[in-house]
Amino acid sequence: MAENGQSAEWNGRKGEIWVVNHERIDRMLAPLGRAALDAAAPKPGEFVLDVGCGAGSTTLQLAKEVGATGSVLGVDISEPMLTFARKRAAASPAALPVRFELADAATHALPRAHFDLMFSRFGVMFFAEPVVAFANLHGAMKPGGRLSFVCWRPAAENELVSIPARAVKGLIPPAPPAEPDAPGPFSFGNPARVTSILSGAGFSHVVLEPFGCRMLYGVGETRDAAIEDAVEQAFETGPFSRVLGELRGEVLEQARRAVRAAFADRAKNGGVFIEGNAWIVTARA
Ligand SMILES: C[S@@+](CC[C@H](N)C(=O)[O-])C[C@H]1O[C@@H](n2cnc3c(N)ncnc32)[C@H](O)[C@@H]1O
């Protein structure tokens, strides 16, 4: 199991948060996942691996696209997220060719030269040793098989972080500079690093296409409710929640007011919209 603290995180509060908030998270990530699925172009009959599949949203989408003659295996280190993914699959009106396994994608003994396509929506940025992990995944793919995943560009280019961070600047001491390559949501922001990791793991034809979109971050029956929903997400689920979650007392109240004001600027047409910037990465095994 993942040895770099990720297993504890994704089996603890973080995993529970993703399950409880799966609708919001899927709504927000849908355009980015769709772009990676379009680049993956799954075909009927293909064998697909969904890495870091979490609560299974893309695994189920892939299963619909490969159909009964294909199959999709979702692997993840988070038991609560996989339990939820299995429930979702069982609730599907039509039987889907999908299976979920609790496994660390970096080290798990996957079937060799088996998969036509390896896919991930934001599930490959948490490996302690990414070259080793991708080499393991490469071995599971058929020669010439396709890799397609979506990962975030740097935190500074993503309003999930930059809006709340700017709002509380001056209210709290500046955080120590983040190590950009440390496992975490933004560790694949640098395209040269991603290319080097994938090439080092044996992949060829590595291409990173920038993909930016408006993400629906807060929803509600009224404008105020949508803004409040965005504030709640920033404090509870977003990547900046680690910083915001530490705040207490008057500073917490001031931070909430500042973050609310920042999201109010983004409220229109029944929602709060923020900009997301990612890489759609494709390569060949
Ligand atoms: C940001 S979430 C994305 C989940 C899902 N792909 C989605 O888009 O909803 C990252 C996922 O990667 C999983 N993960 C992290 N390290 C992993 C590893 N070494 N092997 C398999 N899954 C891992 C986490 O448990 C989590 O479910």
Can I get a quick summary?
The chain is α/β, with parallel strands linked by helices.
Lay out the secondary structure:
Elements: H1 6-11, H2 13-20, H3 22-40, E1 47-51, H4 57-66, E2 71-76, H5 79-91, E3 98-102, E4 115-121, H6 130-139, E5 141-152, H7 159-168, H8 191-200, E6 204-219, H9 223-236, H10 241-244, H11 249-264, E7 267-268, E8 271-284
Helix pairs in contact: 2-5, 7-11, 9-11
Description:
The structure is a single chain. The chain is of the alpha/beta class. It has a domain at 6-154 and 180-213 and 278-284: 3-Layer(aba) Sandwich (Rossmann fold). Helices cover 42% and strands 24% of the residues. The protein contains eleven helices and eight strands. The chain has helices at residues 6-11, 13-20, 22-40, 57-66, 79-91, 130-139, 159-168, 191-200, 223-236, 241-244, 249-264; strands spanning 47-51, 71-76, 98-102, 115-121, 141-152, 204-219, 267-268, 271-284. Strands 1, 2, 3, 4, 5, 6, 7 and 8 form an eight-stranded mixed sheet that branches. A hairpin with a 2-residue loop joins strand 7 and strand 8. The longest helix is centred in the first third of the chain and has 19 residues, at 22-40. The model has no long low-confidence stretch (mean pLDDT 95).
